[in-house]
Amino acid sequence: MILTTVLFGAGAITLFVIWRLTSVARGARKRDEALLSRLQPLAARFEAKQPVAQEEVAHLAGKPELRQMLYAMCSRHQRLDLFPPEFLRKEKQAEAVLAYWLQHPNELQAAPEALEYLETMQHPYGSAVAEFFVFRYRMPAGHWAGTDWLLGLSGPFFPDEKPYESVAGGYSRASDVFGKADPKELVRSYASRHQQRFGRGA
Q1: Which of 66, 145, 149, 198 is 20 to 30 A from residue 112's alpha carbon, by CA?
Q2: Does one domain contain both 117 and 195?
């Protein structure tokens, strides 16, 4: 009986891990499909070699959750000349990473209503020192996460990376309310977890 319970418990854990991994992938596909549908009209015009105004690309780049895909699209069609230079700054790349991550169905399922840069922190990462960008954000009215400003971050970023090609990820916890949580602890916690998963220069 005890052995059966142990085996069942181990099996349940394995099934949970498999479900979690596949749900992350399914959720990512769902999020990406929704974002790509918003960029599809522009993609079609690129494919048809039709004129595209810089103002149109700038408008889309102003939506942080679209920014990474938009950059990749402009690069693929050799139209990076249309991508606004101000959105190449690391701070803006970090903003895009966090907004994109928040939209995953396993996270907050939506882009924030407001997203504000707070500070950049340097933290050891293997044999290097990485940059982590800290933000505060607020979800739209009626969202289950509430109306508090929450802390979030993006990183790690390194000096040798090309725009929008870093291994940086987004991170936030529902308990990290702006003004109550310590940004340094948030960076320390995330940097440790990220390095365990991806590593760099260790």
Answers
A1: 198
A2: yes
Mean pLDDT of the chain: 84
Please state the domain count of the chain.
Answer: 2
Q: Which of 22, 57, 88 is the last residue of a domain?
A: 88
103 burial level (CB within 10 Å; 0-12, 13-18, 19+): buried
CA atoms of 202 and 196, how far apart (whole Å): 10
Residue among 181, 192, 196, 170 at smallest CA distance from 124: 192
Answer yes or no: do 47 and 118 share one domain: no
Structural domain containing residue 183: 110-202
User: Residue 105 domain-assigned?
Assistant: no
Model confidence over 69-87: pLDDT tens digits? 999 999 999 999 999 999 9
pLDDT value of residue 104: 85
Least confident of 28-37, 91-100, 190-199: 190-199
Residues 2 and 78 occupy one common structural domain: yes
> Cα 166 vs. chain centroid, distance in angstroms?
11
**Residue 5 sits in the same domain as residue 68:** yes
Q: What residue type is 50 in one-letter code?
A: Q
The pair phi, psi for residue 32, each rounded to 5°, is -65, -40
- Averaged pLDDT for residues 51-59: 96
* Cis bond before residue 156 (omega within 30° of 0): yes
Whose structure tokens read 């960008």? 133
If asked whether residues 142 and 191 sit together in one domain, one would say yes
Kindly give, in sequence order, each residue whose CB lies less than 8 Å from that of residue 143, ignoring residues fewer than 6 positions away.
108, 110
